[in-house]
Specification:
Layout (H helix, E strand, L loop, with lengths): L9 H28 L4 H10 L4 H8 L6 H12 L1 H20 L2 H12 E2 L2 E2 L2 E4 L15 E5 L4 E12 L6 E7 L9 E6 L6 E6 L10 E12 L7 H17 L2 H39 L1 E2 L2 E2 L4 H29 L8 H23 L1 H4 L6 H8 L9 H13 L5
The structure holds flavin-adenine dinucleotide (FAD).
């Protein structure tokens, strides 16, 4: 197990600088255009694929970095470039993790390459869990998967919403109910292969921020997938359901804890995205404050402005430390006894919202226009307190973990 360190090693520094170059030279210059177009930036994804940044290899290398800092460092740099474009690049990785975490070796080998496509024909993937009536309350999910034993096929019916890359993905990972009696313990994940009849895109959302990232409904109408598309396989599912039924009788704590541990481990990655956006806005504001003159001197000469910048940087560094701590805990298999993963996501996402608003204020009228990037960063930052569990849900998780009580 690697010791916790705040110092990147030589190899990590090299990767960080390489990613920063890509974010500065390719992502940032394209950000305003794709934000206005509200479309997936395929040419930028293709460029990332050519360099090896858009690939399972790259993602897996960062994911398995023994210090735990690979993913947060990569997320921070890419999202520093632009949040919407970066999400278009890493969205597939989030779906791939769903397969890596629950799939068999064969499923991983078959489907993950199809999620990325190849350099000349890049593809994306989507992870579809949320539904119109099941956002924070995942247990109220209604999309149903029914097994047709005669054909060894699963039949999926329901409507998923808010799916990043939903409908344009080559491969969709869909979470569905296989046993309605068991609540969230009766859910299973399925691969929906390319061109499956019965899967279609519903409405595409016009959003406040991260507009270069495609977000849409995914409608499943008698979508049939082969038995082999059940992640983990039928035998494992049957065993898991049997155990869940037993535990439901006995109280159900252990299954709940296993699911919580998975979330604790994935939330710091979203915190790192937020740190990237916050840092980007802070840097623009710092530069602006040093050069913009009013009353015959740079505006940073006023404590009212300088102290804001001091607070912004302090919060960003504190957020990064929480993210790195939780990422290190996840890779080291440490127990999240104080919901440290949720803490990092909560603090970093609230920091991004606050810091980007302060940046808009420091740029004055210019901050309010699309001539300057902080307006976009401020819109983008609002997503971090919503997806992967809202701030309220993070507080709920932290409070429950600290108290051991089922606070509502
Ligand atoms: C741009 C975008 C991309 C997304 N990408 C994906 C994706 O790829 N795949 C996917 O499956 N989902 C995705 N989501 C969905 C996202 O995870 C949900 O929006 C989020 O979980 C919140 O659910 P909701 O929108 O239904 O809000 P609700 O759950 O309806 O919450 C509304 C408000 O009520 C509060 N609230 C709810 N319950 C409680 C409670 N018990 N205590 C206190 N407050 C509470 C919430 O905090 C929130 O402020 C995405 C969402 C967006 C906007």
């Amino acid at each position: 197990m690697a010791e916790f360190t705040m110092e990147l090693n030589d190899e990590q520094r090299e990767v960080r600088d390489w990613l920063h170059g890509f974010a500065a030279d390719v992502i940032r210059p394209a950000a305003a255009e794709w934000d206005e177009r509200e479309e997936t930036p395929w040419p930028v994804i293709q460029e990332a694929a050519k360099l090896g940044i858009y690939s399972l290899d790259f993602y897996a290398q960062q994911y398995f970095d023994p210090t735990g800092l690979g993913i947060p460092m990569a997320m921070e740099e890419l999202f520093w470039g632009d949040a919407g474009i970066a999400l278009s690049i890493v969205g597939t990785g989030l779906a791939a993790v769903g397969v890596l975490a629950n799939g068999t070796e064969e499923q991983i080998g078959t489907w993950i390459p199809q999620m990325y496509g190849d350099v000349n024909d890049v593809k994306v993937a989507a992870f579809c869990s949320s539904e119109p009536d099941a956002g924070s309350d995942v247990a109220s999910m209604r999309t149903r998967a029914v097994y047709d034993e005669a054909k060894d096929e699963w039949i999926l019916n329901g409507t998923k919403t808010w799916a990043t890359n939903g409908g344009i993905a080559n491969v969709h990972v869909v979470v569905a109910v296989v046993d309605p009696e068991l609540g969230s313990k009766g859910h299973a994940s399925f691969i929906v292969p390319p061109n499956t009849p019965g899967l279609s895109q519903g409405q595409k959302f016009k959003k406040h921020g991260i507009r270069a990232s495609h977000t849409a409904e995914v409608v499943l109408e008698d979508a049939r997938v082969p038995g082999s598309c059940l992640l983990g396989g039928k035998e494992k599912l049957d065993e898991r359901l049997a155990r869940a039924r037993e535990r439901a009788k006995a109280g159900g704590e252990r299954v709940k804890n296993a699911a919580m541990a998975t979330f604790e481990a994935s939330r710091p990655a979203v915190g790192a995205m937020a740190v990237g956006t916050a840092r980007a806005a802070y840097e623009v504001a710092l530069d602006y404050a040093k050069t913009r003159e009013q009353f015959g001197r740079p505006i940073i000469d006023n404590q009212g402005v300088a102290f804001q910048l001091a607070d912004m940087r302090t919060s960003i560094d504190a957020a990064r430390l929480l993210v790195w701590r939780a990422s290190w805990m996840a890779i080291s298999g440490k127990q999240f006894t104080a919901a440290e993963g949720s803490m990092s996501k909560l603090f970093a996402s609230e920091t991004a919202k606050k810091v980007t608003a302060q940046a808009v204020q420091i740029l004055g009228g210019n901050g309010y226009t699309r001539e300057y990037p902080v307006e976009r960063m401020h819109r983008d930052a609002a997503i971090y307190t919503i997806f992967e569990g809202t701030s309220e849900i993070q507080r709920l998780v932290i409070a429950r973990t600290l108290s051991g009580m089922s606070i509502r």
